[in-house]
Amino acid sequence: MIREVYLENVKSYSRQRIEFTEGINAIIGRNGAGKTTILEAIGFALFDHLPYNISDFVRRGEKRAEIRIKFVSPLDEREYVAVRKIEGGKTTHYYIEDLELGRVASGVRDVTEWVKQHFKLEVSPREIFENAIGVSQGNIISHFIAQPSVRREVFTPLLGIERYKKAYENAREIVRFYETKIHEIEREMSYLKAKIENKDRLISALNSAKKEIEELKKRREEIRKRRVEIENRRNELNRLKSELESLLFRKSEISKEVNLIAPEVEKLKNQLEEIKNLEAEIERLKSDYEKYLEAESKIKEKKEVLEKISKKRDELIKISESCKAIEERIREASNEAERIKKSLRDLEGIEELAKKEEELKKELERLKALESELKALENHLKSLMKSYDEKREESLRLKRAEEKLGKVRGQITKLANVKELYLKALDKRSKIKSRIEELQKQKREAEKGFCPIIDENCDRIVEYAKNIEDEIKNLLQKLGKLEEKFEKLEKALKHLEELEKEEKVLMSELKKKEAVEKSVKDLEESIERLKNELDKKRKELEKREAFEEELKKVTGSVQKLGEKRKLEERLKEVERIKEELEEELADKKEKLKNFEKIEKAYEELKRFLEKLERVLEEKRESYERYILCQEKVKEKERIEAELKQKVKRLKDLESEGKEVESRIESIKKVYKEEELEEVENTLKEINRELGKLEGKVGQLEKSVKDLEKELEDLKKSEEKFEDLKGKSKELKKKLEFVNLVREILKEAIPQMIKAYTEAISVEANRIFCEIMDDFSWQIELTEDFGIKAKYMGREISFQQMSGGEQVVAALSVRLALLKFLSSAGVVFFDEPTQNMDEERRRNFARQITNIKGFRQIFVITHDDTFEEMVENVIRVRKENGVSVV
After folding, report:
1. Helices then strands (H, E): number in the chain?
2. How far apart are the first and last CA of the chain?
3. 357 and 554 in contact (C-beta within 8 Å)?
4. What pTM was computed for the model?
5. Taking Cα atoms as reference points, which of 560, 537, 547 lies closest to residue 361?
6. Quick check: 164 and 748 in contact, CB under 8 A?
7. Which residue from 65, 268, 493, 709 could staple onto 58, CB 3.0 to 4.6 Å apart?
8. Helix 636-670 to helix 199-346 angle, to the nearest 10 degrees?
9. Apex CA 225: angle with CA 221 and CA 227, to 5°?
């Protein structure tokens, strides 16, 4: 059920919210007012149906549009909102939102699936809306007068028949697929069979190759043993050669090392002689060296003392300068304290005046706020007075409405039996008209003078025709009188309906009477209370002028009090600073008592240091020579140790040289260069022979591996052949099954169409007779989705039916179809009474309320007939090009 539609910048709508109720909702307005736009918006937002370009759906001059549909799902009875936003000629946002849980579907695909699930649709929501739920005005009848092929294209997708047709067509592709697969498998089996026939030849070649490999390996093993013996001899000769070369090289190295060490030994001996001379010089310089060190030590000691005295002297100089500055600051503080005391004497007694100023200001602030409050209360009083006048006027109007309701009910009572008389007259008129039509038909047949029973001309038949004419005249006279009576009854009925409508309006109005009377009484009490409060506040405001005059006298006292407190704080601060400065000055003067004593000690120490500096200058050269000699003498032990080490090394080299020479002579006796060359040549020949054998064995082993791999492949081919054989058998079974299914589908589709059309026909016929209020009719949906009818047993084609009858028949079929296809419970009639006369329109409007199985019915029309007949009327009009509801 649709509860609400919100449109923003949609076609002729700017911003509009439209509420709907359960039952019948009539959307009434002139052509072009914007009625159909509401139907299109529901179709687009909920069923993704829009029969034209999306950019044409946006209001002219605007860039974006929005649709919101609030509805109750027939699946779970929960409230949801379908939202679709448009910008730049395309949908930018499209979703379904649960009012409690948030978004449940987003995007065209998800929303479509969600709608299919909740509305229990087997087919596309777009198709079901276009052809059943919201059929546009032009398509109500057009589909049923089209060619059968066109009708099938429209209705078979709705019934889901297309799925079975598609399944039938798709099955043909499956047949082709299976036939192709079977052909491919059989072709591969043929190739594998030819391949498997080479198996015996491969086994024979494999055994032969393995036998040859065994013989070659035996020969290779014999040659390898001989090669090991020769390699052992070659290795021994190479070892001797290598050792000889190493010994000759070592002999040369020993000779070089001896030549290097001998001069170094001589050099070290000379260095030791020089150190003995330096030791004698050190003894001579020792006295001057010690005097220099003594003077240097005293200078260091005295300089430290001088530095301490200097620091103390500098500190005392600074303190002396500081004392002068402190004395100046003390004089400034004394002067400032005197000035502050004078100012404070001028401000005595200001506290009382400042206190009074503050109190007056607070009181005036309160009165200012009271003035604003008074204005607000006066405005509120005016508002209450206005509301009181309006409610009092409404109360008087409701009293008049109550009197009017009594009069209307009296008139309704007088006209209570008009409906019954009208329906009886309507029934009687219908029967007379039917009888006249039947008699006129009989008369035309009788005037021919031919009897259908005896199959020849008959004079009695002509006489019977005259009797019929008399009866027709009598019936026409009765019909004339009845028409006059019917016209009066119709006017009375229309007046009664107007009175009933007026009664409903008056009763609806009078429901507010008690609330209005209570509002009047409440307003009277509120106004009285407000007036009393206003009087009190006005009296308080009268004191304002007196307070202002007093405030002028003391204005500025608070500021002066602040200045006084600042001066008092400053005086305390100045006196504290002065006291601290005096204490500091006394302390510093105490420290200056020893200044002269420290100055004298500083001068004496400076003179003593100058004397020591002269001693240092005199002994510096002897001191520096003494240190240099000491450094050289320190090398004595290292030189002695190095000399001892090098002498020992010379002896070791001499001994090693003799041993090397002896080993060289020994090797030359057993090693010959010619024997080594002969062994090397023999090994090369053996290796060449082995290489040939290895190559031949490798080739044969590769052949064996290739043959074994080929045999392994053949084994897999045998397995694959058996596997393909099984698959071919299985595929042939499946092909047989698919062919059988195709035959079943081919036979089932016509039977399904027949079953659907028969079931729809029964429901459509019931709806049609209810709307027409005439059960003499019988309509049927044919298997090619056309409509045929019978009236009082006589067959009538769809084209022979009147425009109004065609509309009702088409709507009945679509309603029946919708019941079978969906649980939506919602249907739209777009201009359903377009081709109906006034009587048929009124009957359709009355009978539409009897349609069962739909929770909500929408009638979109420019016909005011529906306004009196339905529960909820939505009127649409245009104001300055904008649709307004």
Report:
1. 18, 16
2. 20
3. yes
4. 0.40
5. 547
6. yes
7. 65
8. 170
9. 115
